C-alpha cells in the first residue's frame, strides 16, 4: 500500500517536479533569437560543447529501462543478460569515425535527420522515406519502454490502482508534463535535465555497489546465491556463466545491438547537436565510462537474488521482473534513499523520452511533411510541425502502454533493434561509399525487413505464453540445423540485406540501369565548425552532381 511508502513518495514527487520545472526553464537557457527553427528547437542550435554532449548522449542511451531491465534480465537468465555491457564497449570504437563523418556532412548541408543524409547522398526520395518510416517505427516502442521503467517504480510504491485508469494515471500526468516542456524548450530541456539525471544515477549506483554487499554478505555470497538459483532451474540456457547453448546468441546479439545503437535517430540527434568534430571525438572516448556504470547496474540483478526478492505480478499473473530493482532498494535501503533511487529511475525516463520524441518528430517533418505534404514549408512551419508531432508521438507511446501488456513493449524493443539495423547499408555504409545502387539498397532493405519480420514472428515467449514476436533469439533448427542454439534475428536479417544490396548493385551496374546522383562531395565529410561552405538555413536540397567514384 502507498501508506507504507509515504516518505519515498514525497521525495520522488519533489525531485520529479523540481526537474520538470528545470525543463521549462530550459526554454530560456542559451535562448536564440528565434526558437522556431529545427536547428534550434530540434538540435539546440548545434552548439553543445563537450560536457553537455556527454551528459546528453549518455542520458539518451542509458535510460530508465536500462536501469530496471538489464538487472531484471540477469535476475531471470543470468550471464546472458550481460550482453548489454560488451556491446556498449565495442560500439564506441566502431562508430568513432562514422559519427564524425555524419556530423560533418550534416553540419555542411544542414541535415537534421539520417534520412536527410540518405536523400542527398543517393538522390532517392523513396529510400529516404523508407529510412524515415523505419526510424519512427523503431523509436516508438523505445519511448513506451520509458513508461515501463516509471511504472515499475510506481508499482513498488503502491501508487498504481486496480483499474486501468488508476493504474496509469500517474504515468499520464508525468508524460503530460514531459510533453509540455519538450514542446516549449525542445532539445534544450533534456540537455539541461541530463545533468541532474546522470548525477542522481551515479550517486545511487556507487552507493549501492558498496552498501548492498555489506548487507548481503559480500559479492562472493551474492554470486553463490545466483549460482544456486540457476542450478535449480530446468533451463540449460541460464546460469552465471555462458554455455554452449547461448554463446552464439550472446555474441550476435551484442554485435548486432552495437551496430544498431547509433542508427537510432535519437542517438544521432544528440550527436548532431554538438558544435564541432572534436566534441564528438572526445565524447566517443569518454562515453565508455557509462559502460562501467552499466556493468555495476547489471549486478543488481544478482543482488536481488541474494536478497530473496520476489517480483510483483502483472495483471495477467506473470512475474514483472522489471520490479526487482525497485523492490531491492525498498527492502535494503532506508526509505529516504529509496526515494532518491526511485526519482533517479523516474527522471531517467524523461531525458531519453524527450530526445526520442524530438527525433521521431523531426523525421516526420523533414522527410514526410516537407517532402510529400508541403514542399514550400518555411523553417518556422517545419519547427511547428515537429512540435505538434512530438506531442502525438508521446500520446501514441502512452496509449500503447495503457492498452497493451507492458511486457509486449519489452519484446517490441528487441524487435526495434532488428528493424533499425536494416538502415545500416544506406546510413552507415553510405557515409563511406556511394558504390551501392539506390535500387539495390531499397531491395536489400525489403529483403532484410521481410526476413527479420518472418523470424520474429516465429519466436515464442514461454514466460508470457505468446506464440509470436516473443523476443529476438531465433532457433537455428527453424533453418534446418540440428542444434538447440539460437541466433540474434537482426544479425541474420542485416547480413541478408547487405548480400542482396551488393549482388543487385553488381547486376544493375552491369545492366547500366540509371542511378541517382550525389549532392555531397568528398570535402563535406571533413567539414568543421567554421567551414565557410556551411549551409546556414537549408530550405531545399543541395544541387545534384553525377555519382562519384565508389569510395569517398
From TrEMBL:
<dbReference type="InterPro" id="IPR001734">
    <property type="entry name" value="Na/solute_symporter"/>
</dbReference>
<feature type="transmembrane region" description="Helical">
    <location>
        <begin position="74"/>
        <end position="100"/>
    </location>
</feature>
<dbReference type="Pfam" id="PF00474">
    <property type="entry name" value="SSF"/>
</dbReference>
<feature type="region of interest" description="Disordered">
    <location>
        <begin position="528"/>
        <end position="552"/>
    </location>
</feature>
<feature type="transmembrane region" description="Helical">
    <location>
        <begin position="48"/>
        <end position="68"/>
    </location>
</feature>
<keyword id="KW-0472">Membrane</keyword>
<feature type="compositionally biased region" description="Low complexity">
    <location>
        <begin position="535"/>
        <end position="552"/>
    </location>
</feature>
<feature type="transmembrane region" description="Helical">
    <location>
        <begin position="195"/>
        <end position="214"/>
    </location>
</feature>
<feature type="transmembrane region" description="Helical">
    <location>
        <begin position="248"/>
        <end position="266"/>
    </location>
</feature>
<feature type="transmembrane region" description="Helical">
    <location>
        <begin position="6"/>
        <end position="27"/>
    </location>
</feature>
<dbReference type="InterPro" id="IPR050277">
    <property type="entry name" value="Sodium:Solute_Symporter"/>
</dbReference>
<keyword id="KW-1133">Transmembrane helix</keyword>
<feature type="transmembrane region" description="Helical">
    <location>
        <begin position="127"/>
        <end position="145"/>
    </location>
</feature>
<protein>
    <submittedName>
        <fullName>Sodium:solute symporter</fullName>
    </submittedName>
</protein>
<feature type="transmembrane region" description="Helical">
    <location>
        <begin position="385"/>
        <end position="404"/>
    </location>
</feature>
<dbReference type="InterPro" id="IPR038377">
    <property type="entry name" value="Na/Glc_symporter_sf"/>
</dbReference>
<feature type="transmembrane region" description="Helical">
    <location>
        <begin position="287"/>
        <end position="309"/>
    </location>
</feature>
<keyword id="KW-0812">Transmembrane</keyword>
<feature type="transmembrane region" description="Helical">
    <location>
        <begin position="410"/>
        <end position="432"/>
    </location>
</feature>
<keyword id="KW-0813">Transport</keyword>
<feature type="transmembrane region" description="Helical">
    <location>
        <begin position="165"/>
        <end position="183"/>
    </location>
</feature>
<feature type="transmembrane region" description="Helical">
    <location>
        <begin position="487"/>
        <end position="508"/>
    </location>
</feature>
<feature type="transmembrane region" description="Helical">
    <location>
        <begin position="439"/>
        <end position="457"/>
    </location>
</feature>
<feature type="transmembrane region" description="Helical">
    <location>
        <begin position="336"/>
        <end position="364"/>
    </location>
</feature>
<comment type="similarity">
    <text>Belongs to the sodium:solute symporter (SSF) (TC 2.A.21) family.</text>
</comment>
